[in-house]
Specification:
- The complex is a heterotrimer of chains A (about 400), B (about 475) and C (about 180).
- Chain B is built from 15 helices and no strands.
- Chain B has about 475 residues and is mainly alpha-helical.
- Chain B has a single domain (about 25-165, about 175-470), classed as Up-down Bundle (Formate dehydrogenase/DMSO reductase fold), CATH 1.20.1630.
- In chain B, helix 3 (about 100-120) runs antiparallel to helix 7 (about 235-265), helix 10 packs across helix 11 and helix 11 runs antiparallel to helix 13 (about 390-415).
- Chain C folds into two domains: about 5-50 and about 125-175, 2-Layer Sandwich (Alpha-Beta Plaits), CATH 3.30.70; about 55-120, no CATH class.
- Chain C has helices spanning about 15-25, 40-45, 55-80, 90-120, 150-160; strands at about 5-10, 30-35, 140-145, 165-170.
- Chain C has a four-stranded antiparallel beta sheet, covered by helices on one side.
- Classes of the chains: A mainly alpha (about 400), B mainly alpha (about 475), C alpha+beta (about 180).
């Protein structure tokens, strides 16, 4: 776990992380052994949480590469390390796929032939299209293909990134092209993936913005995680004091901006569904408490109010402690948001300890894998030509 | 220029500096020709000060054409006022036709101006400085054009003040704040006011520059317009922060405006209208069409006013990339709509989308999807982005496509909704066409007047670019 | 009451900043600088405090937004309650767009108003001093000529030393 020159994690921190990982594994084992209903939604959440953490880093890298940005090169190893966890998260898709029949109501045998869903012996039109689309085999194949594509493409980008600047090699053009490819394909595949993985938990619910909503969440999560890990590593001295106020300020601004963007998407999905009040749509929010929803309010508080009011002032956006605290709250808010999307339609509802413990376990695995990936390479990408720019940029 | 994050860069060409290292294109100055500050002042301010052969023949020809269009529109509007909105092609089925289409079209056009002036400012996109002034002017004019349509559609536009929330002798009859139309009124008027303030704030130092170069009456006028600006460092300090704050609030504002406009439709139950993706989808479409209009205007302006060194091929390249990006975003929204129409199993929604393509006006949809999603794909190629004629043509087709997008969404949804017995078509009347022509007349007339009397490029801001280029590339003593 | 000032002109902002720093190091108080565009780093060189208008903007936005929310609640709940589609009178989700717009509007107008007030800018304001080409291509630093006995000459000499193109003495209409 330790890098060649530097102990990135203290012994206590490592023990804590392994402990949390063990706790998650234990919860998974107990749940599976006791055939507890809640464990399957725990698997879904654990898988999604770890995957989206990695995807957040991947998006951070690809968006910056697409825009030819160089401000982040000093701490670029952080999003690289985050994205390097993707293949491991991708492995979890196998566990997820195995659990699909237990998670999704439409995957239960006889769902499409249940008399309550037939009118005159014919499947109701609301479910007609889903009969072929939402069925375990094809659904699982899609999931595996999406995850494999993201992890595979990202690994390729990371491989090029690693060699960037070494021996005069310049892959910037190739990295940029692949990053654009990642962004474009991600937008489409992730939309379908979120329709599949979260929206279809309630088979009759639909919302065209749902993919954008999930995407906005991942963007915000990505910036929060990169910010959090960068500040942690900087406090450990990993970057030899090259992280300056400007870097922190810009990271803070991005987190602020994406918190607002997330809130924008959240509000319009909620407001339009509330306003039109179509049964298949509004049932989604009714199930989550309608206007008096305490958990929903908490999600908005954690993901929007805290970063908005917390980071509004310029001074605060440069303060590492406050930034880190806000970023941590946003990460917790993301987990709660996922839980609120997934759990209410599941057995046990929101009172599901597995849905907390398993994501905590995969989250700990994410952190451990991140540090493993981070320690493999020098913390500062000094050979990269963009490094010099990033080290001294002002605004 | 302190502000936000990504040091995003531009252009694709990668020149090699003398010492052999590759120069990152974003480090190059965005203004070509190694200009001195005095030269910048002259080259830009001489146009509005009437010293650069302005107004030339092209200007008078353009003004004649657009003023004629505006005159025709004015006559049509008068006729509409006197006779009533029955002169439009409206029916009980299609209560909103050309007016709403043109309204949303023009509001959308305006969005690119705010994107350039505010969002790209926060993103530290230095290239925006060459076009922000004219793009913001375009925003203001486009919002004026947009405002015409709901006003006329009221039938009795002289009672427009009924929309304002104030205690009155009618009850007091208050407005219904739950109505998206009321949000619209608030959003559009806020948008216009904030854009105007933002634009004028940018102009104050430039009026001062012109004041100090002018004599006599001109000096007095510019003096009034400049508010007595001196360029004091103590003033600049506050000015810069206020500029940043305005950019910061204009950013969510511009998102909110088209989102609220989309709410006019998305809050309803009409098939093809009620989609939760409408707000970001409309915003992306608005920016797409707005950039198309900026390109249309700028390609002409840089040629006729000899601004080729200020609005370079790299600027055009950046703007086409924004168009490509927003076209992809709009494409994602289109596909999400198809997907959910199919997935939800909502029969009315499905019927609507079939009707959109296979119904009597299927060709509308092909123009819409072709121009917005298809044609812009050629912008992936650098050769295309550098070919001004092709870019100009794409900017025109994009605007055509975006006009048809609104037309398709609004009219084809109403035209065939739940009850087949009430299905009807919209037959635009001459008045419909006349008013629309008038709005284009107003737009181009105002823009020509702007080009004649107001500095087209933000002089103070571009001077900073000329003097420094990328502040990060050579981080000197400054 | 008119004061005398020494004005030094420069052709580059970098030289202006160096001059300001040097003069201040020598103990001279810099009254103001006049530049055609905002010069980055000049604030720090002059030792100006950070602008406080950010707070004005924040408060104005809150006042606008919550004022509008109060109006909406007053109208929809108290003054003119109407049942529309069975929605509650206090339909908070529907009140958010006006809430937001009013916040933005008030923020913009108040902040710009505060800017104009703080800088005392208004249509018809006379420019206090004639500093040629400072809105065009020159950068001027202005120092009080009577801040110490014999200051004018010593400041002039110091300005020439740091590379001022031109140094003049001026008595503007009002204090700078």
């Amino acid at each position: 776990m330790s890098g060649p020159e530097l102990e990135l994690l203290s012994g206590g921190q490592k023990r804590l992380l392994y402990g949390l990982l063990g706790l998650g594994a234990l919860a998974l084992g107990v749940g599976l052994a006791t055939h507890s209903g809640g464990v399957y939604s725990g698997i879904l959440l654990g898988f999604l949480f770890m995957l989206e953490l990695g995807l957040g880093g991947a998006l951070f890298l690809c968006i910056n590469a697409t825009a030819n940005a160089r401000w982040h090169t000093v701490f670029r190893r952080v999003p690289e390390g985050v994205a390097a966890t993707l293949p491991w998260a991708a492995l979890l898709v196998l566990l997820f796929v195995w659990a699909v029949p237990h998670i999704y109501p439409w995957a239960a045998p006889g769902f499409y032939t249940d008399p309550s869903r037939l009118v005159g012996g014919v499947l109701i039109p609301e479910l007609k299209a889903k009969e072929g689309w939402l069925q375990p085999g094809w659904f699982s194949l899609r999931a595996v293909l999406f995850v494999a594509w993201w992890a595979g493409l990202m690994s390729l980008i990371l491989r090029l990134q690693r060699g960037q600047g070494l021996g005069g090699a310049n892959h910037a053009g190739a990295i940029r092209k692949l990053s654009i490819l990642f962004c474009v394909t991600f937008a489409y595949t992730f939309s379908v993936a979120s329709f599949d993985w979260l929206m279809s938990l309630e088979p009759r619910f639909y919302s065209t913005i749902f993919g954008v909503y999930c995407f906005a969440g991942v963007m915000q999560l990505g910036f929060a995680v990169v910010l959090l890990l960068t500040l942690f590593l900087d406090a450990k001295g990993a970057f030899k004091d090259q992280i300056r106020e400007q870097h922190r300020h810009d990271l803070g601004k991005w987190l602020f901006a994406f918190s607002c963007f997330w809130a924008y998407i959240w509000f319009f999905q909620f407001m339009l569904i509330w306003y039109a009040d179509l049964p298949d749509e509004s049932r989604y929010y009714v199930r989550r408490g309608g206007l008096r929803a305490d958990v929903m309010a908490l999600v908005v508080l954690l993901r929007f109010c805290v970063p908005f009011f917390g980071l509004a002032s310029q001074k605060v956006k440069k303060n590492p402690r406050i930034l880190a605290a806000v970023a941590l709250i946003v990460v917790a808010g993301h987990w709660l948001d996922l839980a609120l999307m997934a759990l209410p339609s599941q057995a046990g509802g929101m009172r599901n300890l597995y849905a907390l413990l398993i994501p905590v376990g995969t989250g700990a695995a994410f952190v451990l894998l991140f540090f493993r990936a981070f320690a493999k390479k020098p913390a500062l990408p000094e050979p990269d030509a963009a490094y010099a720019y990033s080290r001294r940029y002002l605004t | 220029m302190q502000s936000s994050a990504a040091s995003v860069a531009g252009a694709a060409s990668r020149p090699v500096a003398a010492h052999g290292h590759e120069v990152d294109p974003s480090d190059l100055p965005w203004v070509e020709g190694h200009k001195t500050l005095g030269q910048v002042t002259r080259e830009i301010a001489d146009y509005p000060m009437g010293r650069a052969g302005m107004p030339g023949a092209w200007w008078w020809i353009g003004l004649a054409i657009s003023a004629t269009a505006l005159g025709i529109g004015g006559v049509c509007i008068l006729y509409l006022m006197f006779v009533g909105i029955g002169t439009l092609g409206l029916s009980k089925t299609i209560g909103w036709g050309f007016c709403i289409t043109n309204f949303v079209f023009w509001v959308g056009i305006g969005h690119a101006g705010t994107l350039i002036s505010a969002i790209l400012y926060l993103l530290r996109q230095r290239w925006r400085t060459s076009v922000n002034r004219s793009a913001e002017a375009m925003t203001l004019i486009a919002v004026m054009c947009a405002g015409l349509f709901p006003l006329m559609h009221m039938g009795r536009p002289w009672f427009f003040f009924f929309l304002a929330p104030y205690p009155n002798t009618r009850g007091s009859l208050w407005m219904n704040f739950r109505s998206p139309l009321v949000w619209d009124m608030l959003a559009i008027s806020t948008y216009f006011t904030v854009s105007l303030v933002f634009w004028y704030l940018g102009l104050i130092p430039d009026w001062a520059t012109m004041r100090d170069r002018a004599h006599g009456l001109r000096k007095r006028i510019y003096g009034l317009l400049s508010f007595g600006w001196t360029g004091s460092a103590r003033h600049w300090k506050h000015y810069e922060l206020v500029y940043l704050i305005l950019a910061g609030i204009a950013t969510p504002l511009v998102l909110s405006v088209h989102s609220v406009v989309s709410g006019d439709f998305a809050t309803s139950l009409v098939p093809g209208w009620h989609a939760t993706i409408f707000p970001p989808y409309f915003v992306a479409g608005a920016i797409f069409s707005g950039f198309a209009m900026v390109l249309t205007l700028m390609l002409v302006a840089r040629k006729t006013m000899h601004f080729e060194e200020y609005i370079t091929l790299r600027h055009i390249d950046m703007m086409t990339k924004v168009m490509l990006f927003t076209s992809m975003a709009v494409g994602l929204a289109y596909l999400s709509e198809f997907y959910i129409a199919w997935y939800s199993g909502d029969r009315y929604e499905q019927q609507h989308f079939l009707n959109r393509f296979l119904g009597p006006y299927g060709w509308w949809a092909f123009i819409m999807y072709g121009c917005n999603m298809g044609i812009p794909q050629v912008l992936w190629f650098k050769a295309v982005r550098r070919n001004l004629l092709v870019v100009f043509l794409i900017s025109l087709t994009s605007n055509l496509g975006m006009w048809f997008e609104r037309w398709v969404i609004f009219v084809s949804s109403l035209q065939a909704d739940f009850l087949p017995s009430s299905w009807q078509f919209y037959h635009p009347t001459l008045i419909d066409y006349g008013v629309m022509l008038g709005s284009f007349g107003l737009f181009f007339t105002m823009f020509l007047l702007f080009a004649r009397f107001v500095p087209m490029i933000a002089i103070a801001e571009i001077k900073h670019e000329v003097a420094h280029g990328d502040p990060n590339a050579h981080h000197g003593e400054a | 009451m008119s004061r005398r000032y020494v004005v030094g002109y420069f052709e580059e902002d970098g030289r202006l900043i160096r001059a300001v720093k040097e003069l201040r190091d020598q103990g001279w108080a810099v009254a103001d600088c006049f530049t055609p565009y905002p010069v980055p780093g000049l604030d720090e060189a002059m030792g100006l405090e950070h602008s406080y208008l950010g707070w004005v903007a924040f408060v104005a936005a809150m006042v606008g937004a919550f004022g509008m929310l109060a109006l909406e609640l007053f109208v929809a709940v108290y003054a003119w309650p109407v049942n529309i589609g069975g929605r509650p009178n206090a339909s908070i989700p529907a009140f958010i767009p006006p809430f937001f717009e009013a916040g933005v509007l008030n923020c913009a107008l108040t902040t710009v108003g505060a800017l104009l007030a703080v800088c005392k800018l208004y249509p018809g304001r006379e420019v206090p001093a004639d500093l040629p080409r400072t809105t065009d291509d020159r950068f001027a630093v202005v120092l009080d000529a009577d801040q110490a006995p014999g200051a004018a000459d010593r400041i002039t000499a110091a300005l020439k030393r740091v590379g001022a193109l031109e140094v003049t003495e001026q008595t503007p209409r009002e204090a700078l």
